[in-house]
Amino acid sequence: MKKMALAIAATSIVGLSSTAQAAVNICVFDLLGKSGESFQMAQEWALASKGWGADVNLLPKQDESVADNDFKAGKCDGVFMTAMRARQYNKFVGSIDSLGGAPSNAIAQKAITFALDGRNAAKMTTNLGGKKYEVAGVAPLGSAFIFVRDKGINSIEKAAGKKFAVLSYDDAQKIMVQRVGAQAVPSDVTNFVAKFNNGQVDMVGAPAYAYKPLEIYKGLGKNGAMFNFPVLQVTADLVIRPEKFPAGFGQKSRDYFVKNLPKSFSMINRLEAGIPANYKMNLTADDKLKYQKLMRDGRLELTKMGIYDASMMSVLKKARCSVEKANFECSLGGE
């Protein structure tokens, strides 16, 4: 009987051990699947995660809505996707992508580093509908710039009446496009640039990260242009179900993402420099100020509506004013 009890105990221990080390599935959104930069970034992270006690299996998804739905259905234990879609799981981190919130890579690096700091660990977890979620990382994809098919659209006033592709699940984009008098055309991350390239829309916002893979140059043609003025910072969030991972995994993962920020921004700077100079259109100082004020008013409105997180708006303002101390907004309250 004693031997049997020991055997049962040993079997139980082995069972517990295998459960703890069971492979976890992570759905990774990348338009280019396994050959894309996001998936390659996820592969490096998955390799590092072995040191934190996790056996990660990456599942490439070329449709972001499929990645999200598979995560919701429990087919994935974590999902790596754009923050605009991931905002539903964590508004604090999802608000880094707010309009004009991080208008340079230097400001974005400060904001992401602060957000993922261990002191903010409590803000990384949320409980929605009885399910617990945790942000285990934020990766920058770079500033989004506005691309136009006709360089004659060189001011806010001239955008009136023009068709602008917006991501249908991001209310912030729709509201801001409507505020400048343009016509918001609901789209998805899988087709918004295609609509620009084939002439269905006149304008689109995208990071340099998407320039070559999505062939934005086809939509620009000979008469198009890119406003050399960032409108928001695009990031990707890694959201996990913490109970599926070893204790302390989330913070170790976040520390990894912070450590890799310089490498990520180096890649982004290279991609931005790779866009041909003849497409880049600089705005006048007056127009820049006009855009900044427009985006600030938009952030205030969207925060009141509950779309953006108020505490992240404060973080972003501090980051902006630490880099650009003379900016008009630094003497203003409200954020």
From TrEMBL:
What are the entry keywords? Signal
Q: Please indicate if the UniProt record lists rRNA-binding as a keyword.
A: no
As given in the record, the signal peptide range reads 1-22
Q: Per UniProt, what is one Pfam family of this protein?
A: AdeT1_2
Keyword Signal in the entry? The reply is yes
- Going by the entry's taxonomy, the superkingdom of the source organism is recorded as Bacteria
Q: Which residues lie in coiled coils?
A: none
* The protein's name in its UniProt record: RND transporter
Organism of provenance = Acinetobacter silvestris
